[in-house]
Description:
The complex is a heterodimer of chains A (107) and B (119). Chain A is an all-beta fold and 107 residues long. In chain A, 0% of the residues lie in helices and 50% in strands. Chain B has 119 residues and is mainly beta.
Amino acid sequence: AIQMTQSPSSLSASVGERVTITCRASQGISVNLAWYQQKPGKAPNLLISGASSLQGGVPSRFSGSGSGTDFTLTISSLQPEDFATYYCLQDYNYPPTFGQGTKVEIK
Amino acid sequence: EVQLVESGGGLVPPGGSLRLSCAVSGFAFRSHWMHWVRQAPGRGPVWVARIDYDGTEIIYADSVRGRFTISRDNAKNTLYLQMNSLKREDSAVYYCVREGHGYIPLDSWGQGAPVTVSP
């Protein structure tokens, strides 16, 4: 199975800060990479698919980039509602695999 | 509005069985591949199984193959997960998840059904 490694595992940031989360695949996955946001007690919510395509209703402060093995999720200006855990997912081949998550906390 | 509502979770002893159901509404169920994904407390999500439009093609994670069975009833707009020979490590919240069309992966999730395997 393809291993997905996220970094950092957690970070503290202030409202208005720019935040970057990375995800590295153990082998090339083209752009078959999605990003999810999960808040406590809730299901994950799809933010970005195809490495960079923002889903409908997702604020434009979220963006994704990358291809092959290295990917990035950027939040341009962190808002109070963005404090959550973020996961990447590869759906290049089976089994689909998630990163271990990045918890974004308030500084 | 797309809705996926899981039911059937609960407490079961090791070696026991449980059947999860997922009733969907707000979209053409028969036009989407469907998945089960689970998440243990404090851990990331883990994919469990996938079924195609009519149950012809099914794939399982190695950890559940031979013990779990995914199925669907398109007439009832319902997805199922039959879980047998349950182990402690199967304890998790189980999510019913829709796969999108084109290059859209797991795009709509249910609220989750908690499963606890314990004596």
